[in-house]
């Protein structure tokens, strides 16, 4: 039997991020900057940045997933780590594609909390077992999610790319 999955198409992603932005705006939250969790959060952050008219986007690289339902023991921040001076006193919206375990969002939120005026989290999906309950969620699911940017395999094998470099 095939495992049921949540399927997000590019078109539905556009609807999802627009509706997410509308929820954020309706609540009156006006972030000074959007902090994207790379890689999946890059797409959500860009779409939210346009919809909320926020041009100040930052990226935090965090490695956690290594495959379908496979992850490291703990998420790890990868360089370059944002300079806290750039975040100081700001209202920050952390954007990611999914709050699965919540570990990545907790790492990023905790990194921000001592330096920013306020930090809120927005995700396209949140899973029921996430340890972080996000401020803004488009949809809740307990299924594995096929995102349009990561459903197909890479066109370049990681080992081949390293050998050719």
Question: Can you describe what's shown?
Answer:
Strand 5 (91-99), helix 4 (103-113) and strand 6 (118-126) form a beta-alpha-beta unit. With 165 residues, this protein is α/β, with parallel strands linked by helices. A 6-stranded mixed β-sheet has the order 4-3-2-5-6-7. It has a two-stranded parallel ribbon with strand order 1-8. The chain has one domain: Rossmann fold. The chain contains 5 helices and 8 strands. The model has no long low-confidence stretch (mean pLDDT 89). This is Phosphoribosyltransferase domain-containing protein. Keywords: Glycosyltransferase, Transferase. Pfam families: Pribosyltran.
Overall shape: globular
> Structural class given helices, strands, pairing?
alpha/beta
Percent strand: 25-35%
CATH class: Alpha Beta
Question: SSE string, helix = H, strand = E?
Answer: EHEHEEHEHEEEH
Whole-Å distance between the termini? Answer: 41 Å
Tell me the strand order in the biggest sheet. 4-3-2-5-6-7
**Number of DSSP strands?**
8
GO molecular function: glycosyltransferase activity
Protein name: Phosphoribosyltransferase domain-containing protein
Pfam families: Pribosyltran
Organism: Kibdelosporangium aridum
